[in-house]
TrEMBL record:
It comes from Tahibacter harae. The active site is at K105 (schiff-base intermediate with dxp). It catalyses: [ThiS sulfur-carrier protein]-C-terminal-Gly-aminoethanethioate + 2-iminoacetate + 1-deoxy-D-xylulose 5-phosphate = [ThiS sulfur-carrier protein]-C-terminal Gly-Gly + 2-[(2R,5Z)-2-carboxy-4-methylthiazol-5(2H)-ylidene]ethyl phosphate + 2 H2O + H(+). It is found in: Cytoplasm. Keywords: Cytoplasm, Schiff base, Thiamine biosynthesis, Transferase. Residues 11-257 form the Thiazole synthase ThiG domain. Its EC number is 2.8.1.10. This is Thiazole synthase. Pfam families: ThiG (PF05690). Belongs to the ThiG family. SUPFAM superfamilies: ThiG-like (SSF110399).
Length: 263
């Protein structure tokens, strides 16, 4: 990696330098949303179509006034959908509101307590959306077989959970994430479960292309400062992955070998 060849990744044909994707919900107001997004250095921001005003209500503050599409890639998501039908309908609405915008984040939930994905409904919705020309970034479980199937359907990015949404538990099954990363031909981004900067760094050290988070930033005591911390953690984790860590060993290994020393 050098200044002449920036470390980018590509989503739906567009390169991005920031590997931190942020949500726009749960902040106290739009100004805090703006400040945290800027501190995170995010280029892609996800918007819950069912919960955020991006033009549906002209009498309410519009999120796009503080996060304009001219500066950010808006990623509408299907948060709150529990069936493939509802998810597809929500994506169609987003495309209409955003003048033909095709990039969407698909999530179909299966349980209100854990917010785990309904993988059967997710597969059905993904097939329909890809067929209709959407560029689908898909939230899913950390099942490597399912992740590969979603890639084969035509999703432009696969986004396995690290832990349940909003739990802050961090990466709970790093071996599954590693298996998904090593067998993927599309970007893999951890989505859900990150709690603090070290969690984000671990995801990146595993080789993920990026991390999407909302609660970890918006729910922090100081969301803007946490956004800045997450930005640094993503960058550090990525550099560590590219650098290649030393092997783990059971015993110590001297930093300075004694061979050839004086006396």
């Amino acid at each position: 990696m050098s200044a002449s060849s920036p470390d980018t990744f590509v989503i739906a044909g567009k390169p991005y330098r920031s590997r931190l994707l942020t949500g726009t919900g749960k902040f106290k107001d739009l100004e805090e949303t703006r400040l945290a997004t800027e501190a995170a250095g995010a280029e892609i921001v996800t918007v819950a179509i069912r919960r955020s005003n991006i033009g549906q209500d002209p009498n309410q503050p519009n999120l796009l006034d503080v996060l304009p599409p001219s500066r950010y890639t808006i990623l509408p998501n299907t948060a709150g959908c529990y069936t493939a039908e509802d998810a597809v309908r929500t994506c169609r609405l987003a495309r209409e509101l955003l003048d033909g915008h095709n990039l969407v984040k698909l999530e179909v939930l299966g349980d209100q307590r854990t917010l785990f994905p309904d993988v059967i409904q997710t597969l059905q919705a993904a097939e329909t959306l890809v067929r209709e020309g959407f560029d689908v970034m898909v939230y899913t479980s950390d099942d490597p077989i399912l992740a590969k199937r979603l890639e084969e359907i035509g999703c432009v990015a696969v986004m396995p959970l690290a832990a349940p949404i909003g739990s802050g538990l961090g990466v709970q099954n790093r071996w599954n994430i590693l298996e998904i990363v090593e067998n993927a031909k599309v970007p893999i981004l951890v989505d859900a479960g990150v709690g603090t900067a070290s969690d984000a760094a671990i995801a990146m050290e595993l080789g993920c292309d990026g991390v999407l988070m909302n609660t970890a930033i918006a729910g922090a005591k100081n969301p803007v400062l946490m956004a800045s911390a997450m930005k640094k953690a993503i960058e550090a984790g990525r550099e560590a992955f590219l650098a290649g860590r030393i092997p783990r060993k059971r015993y110590a290994s001297a930093s300075s070998p004694i061979d050839g020393t004086i006396g």
